[in-house]
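Revision sheet: structure tokens.
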Amino acid sequence: MQRKRQPAEPYRIKSVEPIKLLTRKQREERIKQAAYNVFRLDATDIYIDLLTDSGTAAMSNRQWAALMMGDETYAGATSFRRFESVVKDLTRKNFVVPCHQGRSAENLFFSTILKKGDYVPNNTHFDTTRANTLHKGGIAVDFPCEASNTDEYVSFKGNMDVEALEQFIHEKGADKIPVIVMTVTNNSIGGQPVSMKNIKDVSALCKQHHIPFFFDCARFAENSYFIKRDEPGYADKSIRDIAHEMFEQCDGVMMSAKKDGLANIGGFIAVNDEDLYRRLTELLIIVEGFMTYGGLAGRDLEVLAVGLEEVLEFDYLDFRVEQVRYFGERIKEAGIPIVEPIGGHAVFADAGKFLSHIPAEQFPGQTLTVALYLEGGVRAVEIGSLMFGGEDPNTGEKLTARRELVRMAVPRRVYTNSHLDYVADAAARIAEAKDKLGGYKITRQAAFLRHFTCEMEQLAPSGIGVEMK
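Predicted:
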């Protein structure tokens, strides 16, 4: 099979940061000291870091220049006004609440609108969205429209199941549903996009039942790119125009701007409801900071204002999506099944299918995650029963993941294609020895977001380890 040419980076490298590969023995020591939890590893332990695309982007020369323009005035800073103007124009919303990151936005929002026992439907909640819903006494419910097989090639797998959602509204009653959230792109099922048609269908359903409709829009630009590429009628529209059309369908947004804001910190809530805005800012001032900085420095707001413009550039997005596509094809060629079609920000390995001899309760995704670190110094993250399992703190229900996945998130403008080839080579060596891999058990965990801090033990030694030369 002839491989499609790898894309060329649409930028020149102006500054470099050294990275170093530890020896196999050193990696074995580090991961054991970290209780087999890759979140507990130090940055210096890592060679290629694919843990997350959140806050890990390389800033552009324009962003570095903007940083020097930061106005650190406590109230009414000019940096906030620039940021506010960009967000208003992008989201088509009248009121902007700055936050230091996405989970802060979720905390503010759900603390303000949720009552115990309320339901929050989503196409698929991600970890912090689900945790913030549960923490406030809400019940997170997912309505994905995902195809049954992870390798089935269907466009817009991130869509929400509108028919199931409508039935749920009739069963529970709109008064028990203070908001319906759509995550774009749908991170938890493989970074899959949502179609404009699906967005409009959900929007119409929400209007019919007078339920506010919000986006979790951390990757809105990538979603807009997929609409332009794959949805009929949008090929000739600009990314900006598609984003505007998306945002006009919703009542408000929450964003971790550490993704498609191309920044290392920051987020926001944007709404049209002035009463909701006032309630949000009252809580913001108590827990984050004044309403014109929200826990951010002025220089961070300046960087975000530039990043939210740069992310709309087609050449950037075209390379971004193509680089991830190239990486996914290399991982698949290495012998590890992946979620297809390949999403915009990460490659998701199907660890449940790859390591079918390891049951879900022994976390096959964590097995593959640890193996990637041991074999190549590569840090990825489990998105399966370790992240989404456990016990619902409100109902006591045992929670399990629909898929046992491992996400290899590609930081924006950071790694070259050669780095990704290196990861694929390590994956190929793991695939050759997969039958020797064993599972893990949890020895200590927190009630919420346990994957960040839990401690684990091996149930069997990995049995692999070809040392890199």
